[in-house]
Specification:
This protein is mostly helical. The protein has one domain. It has ten helices and no strands. Helix 5 runs antiparallel to helix 7. The two termini are 41 Å apart. The N terminus and C terminus are likely disordered.
């Protein structure tokens, strides 16, 4: 397997990019429509989601959200995977990894903020105040994209809830960025990217498993479930899962090719050359190359 920046790979990357954008956008759109739909006994789940998807595509605002959100998701995915695409001695390195960690920190902040919203929903459920203090961070953020008046329905007395949610998101983003910068300080590029992606996937799956039963309970008791913390938690989890669909699958395919990483330095991408002539240290960055242990057990004396 050759580095991704070599001539001849760009056509394949372009085709994969188009497919990537389409799959991510379609999956994200269907997932959001599914969790926003109300189901009745007269129509099945598939029929309801299918009908609502078609109705949404007939609206200009929906297309605006699809285009804007699709570009944001795709560009952030590319920035996150930049160290992998630029894995060569000339341009790879720690700077690209910092960019990746800023992107990863944002989605970690989404999960953190969504989890806190879920805790708020539990408190509201226990105190009987589900419909008194609507939590609508993600809904109102999307309203900005299509030009609707932010906080139009919760002006004055409830504005502080949106502001507090936004401050929580930004603060979490900053804290996670610091944590992830420290995390990658002494780790090589392939291992760091793979580990962070794995942690995000695990956190997203865990959050979805936690929010599904909570959302099912709250939908039966709230007059408008779209303003509950559990619904915001579900939205955040689905957004993170949709974003991870690209990097997660890409890294899964890449890292199932250990021969590639065996041929190139894990820090800077320098071509190691034939195993018989490999030096002990990388001539480009000085990293010590550890010889791989033979996976076969040593045979002892008979």
């Amino acid at each position: 397997m050759k580095p991704f920046n070599k001539t001849g790979s760009w056509i394949l990357i372009g085709l994969v990019t188009i497919l990537w954008i389409l799959v991510t956008t379609i999956v994200g759109y269907v997932a959001v429509v599914a969790i926003c739909s109300e189901y009745s006994g007269n129509s099945g789940w598939f029929d309801t989601v299918y009908s609502n998807c078609l109705d949404g595509l007939a609206k200009k605002d929906v297309w605006t959200l699809l285009i804007v959100n699709g570009l944001v998701v795709f560009i952030s995915q590319i920035l996150f995977l930049l160290p992998v695409f630029r894995f060569n001695p000339e341009v790879g390195g720690q700077k690209s990894m910092r960019t990746s960690m800023v992107i990863a920190a944002f989605w970690a902040a989404i999960l953190t903020t969504s989890l806190l919203m879920g805790v708020v929903a539990i408190v509201q459920l226990l105190t009987g105040t589900l419909d008194e203090y609507p939590v609508t961070l993600y809904v109102d953020s999307e309203a900005l994209v299509i030009g609707e008046d932010l906080l139009m329905t919760i002006k004055d007395e409830f504005t502080w809830i949106f502001v507090l949610s936004l401050v929580t998101l930004l603060t979490s983003w900053l804290l996670w960025s610091i944590v992830l910068f420290a995390f990658i300080a002494r780790r090589s590029m392939p291992r760091a990217i793979r580990r962070v992606t794995g942690l995000l996937v695990a956190g997203t799956l865990l959050e979805i498993l936690l929010v599904l039963p909570l959302e099912a309970i709250i939908r039966r008791r709230a007059e408008c479930y779209c303003g509950t913390g559990s619904f915001q938690m579900l939205l955040g989890s689905v957004m993170a899962a949709t974003w991870l669909l690209g990097p997660g699958l890409f890294l899964l395919l890449v890292f199932r090719r250990p021969a590639y990483w065996g041929r190139f330095c894990p820090d800077c991408g320098y071509d190691k050359g034939p195993p018989s002539s490999q030096p002990e240290n990388c001539p480009e960055c000085g990293r010590a190359w550890k010889k791989e242990r033979d996976p076969r057990p040593e045979k002892g004396p008979r």
